[in-house]
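Exercise 7. Given the encoded structure of a 390-residue chain, write a plausible sequence.
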């Protein structure tokens, strides 16, 4: 305990310390050509710098004219130079187990007309007990449907006291501009997740960019982010589907117009299909439907093709060649079963991120937002309450 306590003091000292790179050599801050700026970099040069702070540079008896910061991978660290040249502050905090090199150029004198000087300082940060990473959907460069949220799944728990800072570091921009909001979600896996959904569906053709300036952010319980993230995606054609449960019918819509319908079998009265607006979360060309995965023990294992996933708990659109009552009776365990040919049509028609609305079901179960990409199960007003930024 004594050694650990001493180490904490040393790390704190390294964080709070600063490194004076140059001293005045020509008086006390005059404007003469011999005056040299005194530049201070924080954290100070050395190793095992504590986490949780930005990089800052200050100039006394002069002005900073340029600051360049790079990490040990050669990546530049962005920052803001004060208008009067007195200071520079990084846009992000220091990341774990990273070596940074800070190079500065400054001119001495109150009016910045003194001697020009260049400095260099290097420091290394301490490692993090856990590095928190994220998995994003959609992936970079993907084209998705008009109901697709930005969905970010974290490797490690995000402490509730840290969520606001994480949320503020995440930005969504689009062309055309679309209103939307972040909301915290518990994923079906139990992991923490944050989604951004538009207020209404995306316009077809929208270009979307997502950035996360997360480096050096403490996520709690020993977790830290070690890098920034950025990706882009595009909204494809406006394609949707609506299932009329009593009519045993799915209708396909493109740009708001009906373009075809398919007969099928929804959930039985004992296992009705979940209602509301679902988002296509994935697809699989061939799959074995296993009763054990949805709580029915070992009652069946049936091979199906052209499977379109809705909820994570097992609401799918799929072929059901074993069903002799397609279009006549709702007798499934919650899915919408079709002929193999019709399941292929739906599989091809609906992109990931398209929506499927289920109407007329007797189901009273509320589908949790984390049970897939179920952001449209809530109203805009309900969704806005999920933010951690108050």
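Solution.
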């Amino acid at each position: 305990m004594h050694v650990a306590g001493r180490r904490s003091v040393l790390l704190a000292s390294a964080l709070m310390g600063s490194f004076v790179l140059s001293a005045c050599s020509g008086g006390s801050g005059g404007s003469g050509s011999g005056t040299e700026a005194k530049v201070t970099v924080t954290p100070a040069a050395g190793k095992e710098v504590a986490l949780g702070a930005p990089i800052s540079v200050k100039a006394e008896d002069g002005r900073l004219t340029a600051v360049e910061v790079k990490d040990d991978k050669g990546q530049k660290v962005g920052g803001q130079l004060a208008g009067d040249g007195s200071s520079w502050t990084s846009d992000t905090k220091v990341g774990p187990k990273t070596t940074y090199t800070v190079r500065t150029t400054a001119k001495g004198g109150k009016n910045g007309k003194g001697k020009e000087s260049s400095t260099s300082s290097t420091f290394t940060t301490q490692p993090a007990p856990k590095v928190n990473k994220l998995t994003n959907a959609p992936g970079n460069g993907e084209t998705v449907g008009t109901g697709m949220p930005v969905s970010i799944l974290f490797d490690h728990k995000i402490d509730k006291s840290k969520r606001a800072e994480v949320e503020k570091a995440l930005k969504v921009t689009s062309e055309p501009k679309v209103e939307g909001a972040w909301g915290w979600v518990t994923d079906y896996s139990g992991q923490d997740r944050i989604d951004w959904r538009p207020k209404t569906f995306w316009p077809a053709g929208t270009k979307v960019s997502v950035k996360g300036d997360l480096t050096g952010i403490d996520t709690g319980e020993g977790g830290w982010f070690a890098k920034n993230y950025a990706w882009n995606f595009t909204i494809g054609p406006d394609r949707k589907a609506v299932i009329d449960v009593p009519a045993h019918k799915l209708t396909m819509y493109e740009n708001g117009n009906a373009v075809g319908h398919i007969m099928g079998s929804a959930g039985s009265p004992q296992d009705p299909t979940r209602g509301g607006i679902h988002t296509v979360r994935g697809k699989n060309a061939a799959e074995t439907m296993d009763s054990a995965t949805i709580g029915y023990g070992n009652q069946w294992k049936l091979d199906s093709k052209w499977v379109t996933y809705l909820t994570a708990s097992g609401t799918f659109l799929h072929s059901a060649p074993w069903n002799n009552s397609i279009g006549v009776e709702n007798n499934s365990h919650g899915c919408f079963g079709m002929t193999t040919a019709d399941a292929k049509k739906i599989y091809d028609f609906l992109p990931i991120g398209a929506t499927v609305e289920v109407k007329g079901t007797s189901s009273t179960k509320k589908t949790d937002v984390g049970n897939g990409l179920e952001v449209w199960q809530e109203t805009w007003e309900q969704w806005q309450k999920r933010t951690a930024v108050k």
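Remark. The first strand starts at residue 19 and ends at 20. Students should compare their own answers with the one above.
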